Amino acid sequence: MYFHTQQLINEIAVDQPDPAAANALQEGLGGQFGEMRTMMQYLFQSINFRGKAKPYHDLIHAVAVEEISHVELIGTTISRLLDGASESLPKMGAGKGGTPLKNALSEGNIHHFLVGAQGAMPVDAAGNPWLGSYVYNSGNLTLDLLYNLMLESTGRLQKCRIYEMTDNATARSTISFLIVRDHAHELVFAKALESLGVNWGKILPIPNFDATQFPEVRKLMDTGLHLQQHHWRLDGSEMAKIFSGSSPANDGATVETSDSPPTGFPMQPAPERPEEFGPGLPPELKELVDQIAAMGENI
Amino acid sequence: MYFHTQQLINEIAVDQPDPAAANALQEGLGGQFGEMRTMMQYLFQSINFRGKAKPYHDLIHAVAVEEISHVELIGTTISRLLDGASESLPKMGAGKGGTPLKNALSEGNIHHFLVGAQGAMPVDAAGNPWLGSYVYNSGNLTLDLLYNLMLESTGRLQKCRIYEMTDNATARSTISFLIVRDHAHELVFAKALESLGVNWGKILPIPNFDATQFPEVRKLMDTGLHLQQHHWRLDGSEMAKIFSGSSPANDGATVETSDSPPTGFPMQPAPERPEEFGPGLPPELKELVDQIAAMGENI
Amino acid sequence: MYFHTQQLINEIAVDQPDPAAANALQEGLGGQFGEMRTMMQYLFQSINFRGKAKPYHDLIHAVAVEEISHVELIGTTISRLLDGASESLPKMGAGKGGTPLKNALSEGNIHHFLVGAQGAMPVDAAGNPWLGSYVYNSGNLTLDLLYNLMLESTGRLQKCRIYEMTDNATARSTISFLIVRDHAHELVFAKALESLGVNWGKILPIPNFDATQFPEVRKLMDTGLHLQQHHWRLDGSEMAKIFSGSSPANDGATVETSDSPPTGFPMQPAPERPEEFGPGLPPELKELVDQIAAMGENI
Amino acid sequence: MYFHTQQLINEIAVDQPDPAAANALQEGLGGQFGEMRTMMQYLFQSINFRGKAKPYHDLIHAVAVEEISHVELIGTTISRLLDGASESLPKMGAGKGGTPLKNALSEGNIHHFLVGAQGAMPVDAAGNPWLGSYVYNSGNLTLDLLYNLMLESTGRLQKCRIYEMTDNATARSTISFLIVRDHAHELVFAKALESLGVNWGKILPIPNFDATQFPEVRKLMDTGLHLQQHHWRLDGSEMAKIFSGSSPANDGATVETSDSPPTGFPMQPAPERPEEFGPGLPPELKELVDQIAAMGENI
Amino acid sequence: MYFHTQQLINEIAVDQPDPAAANALQEGLGGQFGEMRTMMQYLFQSINFRGKAKPYHDLIHAVAVEEISHVELIGTTISRLLDGASESLPKMGAGKGGTPLKNALSEGNIHHFLVGAQGAMPVDAAGNPWLGSYVYNSGNLTLDLLYNLMLESTGRLQKCRIYEMTDNATARSTISFLIVRDHAHELVFAKALESLGVNWGKILPIPNFDATQFPEVRKLMDTGLHLQQHHWRLDGSEMAKIFSGSSPANDGATVETSDSPPTGFPMQPAPERPEEFGPGLPPELKELVDQIAAMGENI
Amino acid sequence: MYFHTQQLINEIAVDQPDPAAANALQEGLGGQFGEMRTMMQYLFQSINFRGKAKPYHDLIHAVAVEEISHVELIGTTISRLLDGASESLPKMGAGKGGTPLKNALSEGNIHHFLVGAQGAMPVDAAGNPWLGSYVYNSGNLTLDLLYNLMLESTGRLQKCRIYEMTDNATARSTISFLIVRDHAHELVFAKALESLGVNWGKILPIPNFDATQFPEVRKLMDTGLHLQQHHWRLDGSEMAKIFSGSSPANDGATVETSDSPPTGFPMQPAPERPEEFGPGLPPELKELVDQIAAMGENI
C-alpha cells in the first residue's frame, strides 16, 4: 500500500516560462528512458519478483517508490515552465476575439496548450505517447539488474544532454537533481551486480565524465546525494545488506542506505488560466467551490 | 513524496493457476480503462491542477494514490494466476529437451511465458501495450470530473464482465474488491459534480444493477466498502469537505471520507521457476545471494 | 453533405452465433485493407482532390460513399455473429455468481465481450486498432488510382481467404457480397487508369481465379453486380464519362455507371444482453425510456 | 445506406495560406477528440445499438451522419489553409533546381508537403495518426451517452483554444461553426441523459463561458444554431421524442429537432500544384483527361 | 555495400506444419528482442559510429551483418512451419465452397493465413508489429555495448523458453542454432566491455545454465560454435583485435574471430498454395511465367 | 547469407550541417515509403516467395539487397547533416554550464540530439517510429509486384519533394541518387508486370515529369543509371530473363541487368562529439581503446 505527504522531493527554482524547455523535459518524464518508465519498470519487477532474495527485491522496490516522487517532481516542473507561456488574458479581450494562445503554433509541443491546459503530459519530447512495451521485466535477476543499470545510465545521459540545451533555472534545478539521483541509482544496480561477482573497473558512472563541471550538479554532489539511497518504506527494508560499503565505481567512495527520508519541499498551487478554460468554472459555480474550500475540514 | 508499507490492500484467495483468467485480468491492469490508467490519469490531474479549490485537488489525488495500490494488487493477482501454469520441471528433464512451457502456445497471452516469467505485464487482454494517450487531463475541472466518473463506471462495467467470465477464486477475490472500489470512486466523482449543482437522479452507480447478486461482491458491500474513501495522506487532506453526507446515488445511503487506512494483508514471495530461468542464478551465484539474504540487517 | 436511409446495402443471412468468424470479419472492417480504410482513403482523396478532372473526382467519391454503407453492413454482420455467443442469462442466475461470458476466454477476440457488448470494433482480426497512417493520398492522380486498384484487389483477396475459413451463412452472405463489390471497384479504378493509357491485358481481376466456384458469389455475379457502380449522389455525377463501355478486364464484358441506388434491406434492432449490461438500464429507467419510445413522433 | 450532395455544411471564408493554422486544425479533424473520432464513435454505437429504444438510437445516429459532413468541412478547410503555402513554381524554375517547398522545413507538419500534396491528413496536431482505440462503445446506454457528452465538450474546449491560436479567417470560419455545433451536440446528449433523470444544474455547456465574446461564434449563435439538430435521414427519425422542449442547460432556451437539412454551400475545386506533382499528369495524359472531362455526361 | 549468396546460414530440419510453433518463433523474428531488432540496432550503431576505435565499429558491424542472415533463416523457418497448415485444396473443391483455411480461426496468428500466404511477418508472437523505437543507439560506446550484451542475453533467454514450448524439429533446428549464436554474440559484446576494464566474474552467459541439457543445442556447442565470430566482410575487419583470447565468461575457453564464412545450406523453393492465391496466376499467365523461367539466362 | 564491403553505394557531397534537412531525409529512411520499408518488404517477399518462377524471385531479391545499401547511404547522409549542428564544445566550457545543444530546441527533430548523438534514427520526418505493418507481402505475385511499383513511385515522388525543400549539397547528392534508383526500380517492377501482359502506355515513370530539370539528377541520368539493375549476388541470378530489352516506359530506351556491382565510395569515420558524450570514454578508457586500435590485426 502506498501513502503520500504533500511535499516535493526537491525544490524547483523560479524562472521565466519556457515551453521549448518544457518540451525537452518531457523526454525525462514520458520518454522511453524517462521517470514514468523507470517507475513502472521497477514496480512490475517488484510485483513479479521470484525467489527468496528479499534484499534484491527491496533494493529494486526502493528505487521504484522514489521514481513516483520523480514523476511528481518533473511533471510539476514542466507545468511551471509552461504556465504563463500564453499571452496574458487582457490581450485576448472580452468580445474581441484575440489570440492569447498564438505562441502554441511555434514553440514546443502544441498539445501542451491545446490538449492540456499548460500542463505536463505522458509523452516524450517528440510527442510520442508513453508505451507499455517500454517496461522490461524478464524475470531473470541478472538480466533485470543489468537492464536497470543501462536504463539509469541512459536516463542520466539524456538529462546531461537536456542540461546542455537550456539554462532556464526552473528546468535546470530539476534536471540537475535527476542527474545526481540517476547517478545514485546506477550505483545501486551496479552494486547489486557486484554482489554477484562483477567488477566494473572504471566504467562507472556512465557516461563517465566530470559532472561537477555542471555547477548546479556540483552543488548537489558536494552533499553526497549521489552516494545515498533511502528505502521509502514505512516498515523497514533489507536493501542495506547489498547497498553499503565501497562504491562499485571503484573510486574510494562509500555508498549507504539511509533509513530516513530526505527533507521535502512545499508544493505550490498553480494559478487559474482563463484562456485555457482551466479550471474554467463560471462565476456562480466558482462561488459554490469557494464556499466548500472555505469550510472547516471534516464537516 | 510517496511511501510504502509491505501490505496488499486486499487479500488474494488461493486457487489453481489459470492463464486464461490471468489474461482477462490484464484488461483491469493495463487496459484502456484499467488501474494503470486511472492511476496515471489522476496523478497527472493532481500534478497539473489549477486554482485554489484544494478540496477538489485532494479528492482526485486520494483516488490516485489508492490506484497505485490497486496496480500492486491486480498485478500480484495476475502473477499468482500464472504461477505454475507451466508443467513441472521434472517433465522437462535434464538433458532430455522436454517442453514444460508448451501450454503457452494455446492459452491466454503467450508473452506471459515468453517475454515475462509468468508475471503481470503492462498490456490489455488483447495484448495491446498501455498507451500514454489514454490519460485524459483537459485542465477544465468539470470535464475532468465528468471523465473520471465515466472512467470509473467503465472500469466497473468491465470488471463485472470479467467476473462473469471466470469463477477462479484467486481472480474473483480481486475482481470483486475492485468492483466495489470502482463503485466508491464513482460516488467520489459524482459527489464532486453534485457539489457543482448536478443531480444524478437514479442513474448511479453505472452500470445500475444489483451487484449483490455476485456473492463475493455482496460480502464486501455488506461492510459498506463502496461508501468510504480514505485519503492516503500522512499529513491530512481536505477531501472530506466534499465527500461526506448523502450519497449522490440518491438512495438514502451516506458516504464518508475515512482518516484511517484500511487494514492491509501480508505479501507472499513467489517461488522460483527454473523453466523460466527466473530468477535463474547458477548454484554458485545463488550461494552468494543466500549469504547476503542471511545477513543481519543494516550491516 | 451526407444523408442516410435506414436500409442495409445487402441482406444478412440468419445463422448461429460464431465469435471466431466474427473475429475473422474484423479484418474486413478494421484491417489495413478493410472497409474503414477504403472509406477514409477515398474520402480524403476526394476532399484533397486537385485539378479540373471532375469525372475522376466523382469516380473516387462514388466508391467512397458506398464504403460507408459497407462499414455499416460488415459492422452489423459482426454484431449478429457475436450476438448470443455468451451463454444464456439463466445459467448465470441471480445471486449465484455464474459465468455466462466464459466463452470469451477461448474464442475470437475477448474484447468483443469485455470492451464491447458483443458488437463490432474498429480493429483487425489480430486485435490491432485501425490506424490513420493506413490512409494513402499522395495527391498524384496516377499513383492514387494505382494504389486504389491494389487496395481493392487486396481487399478482395483477403475476403476470398475469409470465405475459405468459415461456412457460417451470416458471415458468407456479407463476405460474398463484398467480394463482388471489391471486384466492381477494381474495375472502376482499372478503367480510370485505362483512360490514361494503360492496357491491363489479362491480369484482372486480382486475384485472377474463377470466383463463381464460390456458390454464394456466383449468385451475385450472375446478376452482373460486379460490373456496375452507382454514384450515390442526390445531385448527379460525372463518373459515367469514365466508367462505361468495355471492361478493363478485356473479357468482352461491359461496365456501367448506374443512376439509381440499389434496393436496400431493412435493419433489425438487436436484442438486449443483460449479461453485458447492454443497454443495461434498471427497471425504473427502462420505464422512462419505454414511455419516450411510445410517444407519437415530433412531440 | 448513405448518400451525398455536393455541398459543404458551412461556408469557408477566404484568407491567406497558413500551414501553422492548418496544423492546429488537424486536432479538430484527426485528434483524439476530433471529427473523425466523433463520426466513427457514433457510427459504431449506432451499428451495435441494443434494445428497442429507437429514439435514442436515432438521436445518436443523427449526430453520426452530421459528423461525416464535419469531416468533409474541416478537411477541406485544412486543404485551403495549406494550398499555396509553398512558394510559387517560377521560383523553382525549370532546369534550375529551386526549392519551392522549403517552407515545409519550418512550419506546421512537414508531412503536409512531403506525404500529402498540401492536403488534410488523418493525424492530430502533434502528427500522431488517428487510432481505432479512440472509439468508445461500451454498449451500456447511460455510459455511452455520458461519454458522448464529455466528448463533445472536450471537442468544443479544444476548438475554443484553437480559436485563440489564430485569427486567420479561413480557419476561424470553420472553427467557429464547429464550436457552435459541438455546443448543440452537447445539448443533444445532455437532453438524452436528462430523459433518464439527470438534472445538469448550471454546468452546461462545458466549458461554461460566454462564447459570444468570440465574434464569429456570436454571429452563428444569434441564429440559434446551437439549439437545433437535423436528423439527416431521408426516411424520417424518432429523435424528436427526446430532443425537443426546454434546454438541458436550464437557461430558459428551447431546443428542437429540425426536419429540414440546413442550406449547403458550393464546393470549389482546388488548383493544380505542379511543385507537389499533384495531380501531376504530363501534357499528353492531361490532354486525355481534358477530353474526358469535356464529354457530355452519361456517354 | 551488401552482397548475397543463395545459402542459408544453417540447415532447417523437416517436420510437420505447426502454426502454433510458427507463431512462437515470430517473437524471435519480429519481437522486441528478435533478429529484426538486433539487425537494425547494430546497423544503426555502425552507421552512426563516432571516433577512431575502428575495431569496436567492426565488431558491432560483424554481428549486424550476421543478423541479416538470421532474419533470412528464421523467416524461412516460420514459412516452412506454416506451409501446408491449411487443409489440402481438394477438400475445398471447385464450385463447392469448402473451407480449406478453417484452421486459421483457432491456431497461432490468423494473419499468417489471412494477410500473408502462410509466410513470416514482421510481428511478434502476440501480433504486435515491429517498432522503430525498439532500436537503441545512444552514441555512447559503453552504453551501446552494455545494451547489446543485455539484448543478446534476452534474445537467448526467450529462445530457450521457445525451445521448451515445442519439440517440432523444424522449429528446434533453428531455435537451437540461434541459442548458440546469441551465446557467441553475448561473448562478443562482453569481451568488448572487458577490454574497457569490466570483469564479468561468473555471470556469463546469461541466463547462466547448462544449455547442453538441450540435445540439439549440445550438438552445436560441441563444435565450438558459441566461441567463434566471422566478420562477414569481403574486404577484411579489425574486430579480431578485440575478440580473441580468453573467453569473458572466465571459464577457461578461448574465443576467436574467424576469417572464413561458415558453410551455407541450399535454399528450397516453397510450393504453390492455391487456397491462398499464392502466387495465384491463372493458367494463361502461368504459361507466360513458365516460358520466362525456362529461358537461358541473360537473354 | 549476406556479406559486406566497406564502401558506400554513392558519394556524399560535403556541405554545412543542416538538421532541418536531416529531418526531411528521415522520411526517405524511416518513413512509410522509405528505404527501411522497401528493404524489409522485399526481404519478406523473397523469404516467403512461392512457386517455381525463380526469375521473379531473383528480381525482387536483387532490389532487396540494394536497399540495404540504400539504408546505409541515407543513414550516413543524415548523420553527416547532423554532425556539428550543435555549437562547438568550447562555448559550453568546463565548469561553466554552457548550452552547446540549444539548437536542438528549435530545429528538426530534438531526438537527433537527445536520444541519438547526432545520428540517423528509424523514424520518419514527423518523428513516427518505423512500423512493421508497413510491410506488404500478400503472397499473390501480381499484387506484390503492383504494390512494389506503387511503392517505388511513391518513394520517388517524396524524394522529388524533398529535393525541392533543400539545396544543401550533402542532402541533394543522396536524394538525387535515390530519385534515379527509385526510377530504375519502378522500371524493374513495371517490366515484370509487362511480362504478365500489362502495357503501361505512357504513365511511367510516376510521377511523370522531366526529372532532368533537377541538375544533380540529370548528371546521373546521363549515365543511364535509371536503366540498369545489378543483381547483388555473388553466385548469379536469373533476373535478366525479365529485366532486359525495351523499357516498360515505352520511350525507346533499353533496360539491362548488370552482372557487375557499381563502383563504391570510401566510408569516412565520424568525429567524436564530447557534448553528446559520444563515444564518451574518459581519458583512461580511451587510452585502452587506442592501444587496441593500434595493434596489428588478427592478434
UniProtKB/TrEMBL annotation, chains A, B, C, D, E, F:
Identify the SUPFAM superfamilies for this entry.
Ferritin-like
Give the Gene3D superfamilies listed for this entry.
1.20.1260.10
Needed co-factor(s): Ca(2+); Mn(2+)
Q: Which GO terms describe its molecular function?
A: metal ion binding
**Residues binding Mn(2+), per UniProt:** 35, 67, 70, 152, 185
The free-text note explaining how the cofactor binds reads: Binds 1 Ca(2+) ion per subunit. Binds 2 manganese ions per subunit.
InterPro entries in the cross-refs:
Ferritin-like, Ferritin-like_SF, Mn_catalase, Mn_catalase_dom
What are the record keywords, sorted?
Answer: Calcium, Manganese, Metal-binding
Q: Which Pfam families match?
A: Mn_catalase
Entry-linked CDD domains:
Mn_catalase
Q: Which residue stretches does the UniProt record annotate as biased composition, category Polar residues?
A: 244-261
Q: Which residues bind Ca(2+)?
A: 58
Segments for region (Disordered): 243-284
What the record says about family reads: Belongs to the manganese catalase family.
Instruction: State the name under which the record lists this protein.
Output: Catalase
